[in-house]
Protein 1
Amino acid sequence: MGPMDEATQLELVRRAITCGVTGCCLWDRRADQRARSDRGLAGLDPEEITGRLQVYVRAHPEAVRARQETREEYRGAYDFWFRVIVPVHEFRHGLFVELILVDPDPELPVVWIVNAHEQRR
């Protein structure tokens, strides 16, 4: 499969987050471990973060934003990464969630959550 444009990938990411099928919106193993031990997440565990992300994106699909991948270590693997700032009362500026599209299947796309932390501004 050739490269996909940003709009196509964005739609697949939104679908993966909101489809409700177990296995479409997963945590990268290392990110899951980091989140579980991160005191800066105010007690939000990966399951809670995933749930809030899904609820928010269902109501606000436009909140998912694509970013050109410029980090050297990921440039060959991904053209884009995706972010959502989820409003949560724990953080003044919300919760930053970073995702990558790991399976662009049009029926059941899969994203991995690769980072989550307090949005600083």
Protein 2
Amino acid sequence: MKTYTAASGYVYQYYFVGKRDALADAPEAPATEYVFDVSPDRKATYAVSVFLKPEALDAWRSSKARALTDTEQYAAAKMRLLRGFDEAEVIRSHVSMVVDAENVGELLAEIGVE
């Protein structure tokens, strides 16, 4: 269990549940889905999905001349989750977020991945 204080002042607890290929009928498919359980109040826990789009991997490979490692892919998903905490007033139900070609570089730059 990890803790994150969002810009809104909420203190979230979260943990990584796992990853899988996005379900075929998911609007974000095709993608890799990273699932986190999140609690904004230590009472209720909600599933939050972060979808890593193949276009994000392609954009990274094109701009950096190397592929993202599995660890770096997880880092991008986690950084998107934390940004989502900062952007939302409070996360209280199943939410999905996306790592795409437009935000993968800036998400990883926040933690020094080049």
Protein 3
Amino acid sequence: MSTLKVDSIESRTSGNRVVLPDVNNYSPFRNIIINGDMSVAQRGTSFTGLGDGDSKYTLDRFKWSEEGTTGDAEFTITQSTDVPTGQGFANSLKIDCTTADTSVASNNIVYIEQRIEGQNLQYLKYGTSSAESTTLSFWVKSNKTGTYTVNALGDTAGSGKLYSQAYTISSADTWEKKTLTFIGDTALAISNNSSNGLQFMWNLLAGTDKSSGSVQTWGSNTQANRAPGQVNLADSTSNEWYITGIQLEVGDSATPFEFLPRDVNKNRCLRYFQDLAPKKNDCRIALGEVVVATRLDPIFQYVEKRANPSVTFTAANTFSIYNAGTSRDCTSISSDNFSEICGNLNANVSSGLEPVGGSGQFITNGTGTQIFVDAEL
């Protein structure tokens, strides 16, 4: 059998017949999950003391959540370099139990999740007889073998229908690939907006109220059916759990993981979260107008956000203002009028900015500065 090029697509010939590859299964952006290779970590690479009802984003687009009565368990999440060999991954998300809880409260459940905008899911045709099945695949590793569960929660802006499935980690400390297919929901459409239309949750522990039922296809969000048979990852401080290569795609089979260029992958994350301050000292990050002798309003433009973001930042003295030949440390900072595409801060100094109506530069003062613009689901 020989090979030839047809319209820049590599093809195979068998006699006189040209066999083209199945390009539909390898179309670009087939992976609905963002940052499934765990390579983007704008908020940091280590998150400690997770527990006590925390709900917190960690590596980009992946949220740690705990529901119900909290126990003693605490965890650390890190961006790890432990990955399945020969698969092309450089990072994984690692969850390490640091404080054990051997008796999980009946209504307690802990999971990591990713939430997906409804307007990105309309091609799944949920709510019609043509609803598409999707296949979720991922690589997972743990010393704690046994049954784990994954939940899909559909149209959370509406009824919040539940689909639960189980998978087994068979060999301790060994990377295993798991594949789960979710049939399409013909009964309930996903809302066509920027709200949470579908979310996937990887459970790590569950009390009896969340685990005494059985796995189910699309139906009412019956709590007992969320995590049947789920192991308790918190029963020992020796327990660790890793995941990477998460892919969700249309169809009833998994294709190889879709690796995106770094800039494309990060820009998909920036729609939901962005740090406007580089970790560099004396970096000019914005220009602004001198409003009064004690205040500059630096203006920021950024990747369009899903919604009007919330804004948080490090202490005022981690920034300074350069104006009229002099640099002055900020004494206080507040956010003002941030929209999906731009916004400004009110940055104050003790005195000396001039002239009113003139301009100044907003500058990092150290390497630990942060300006978090957050529009997560």
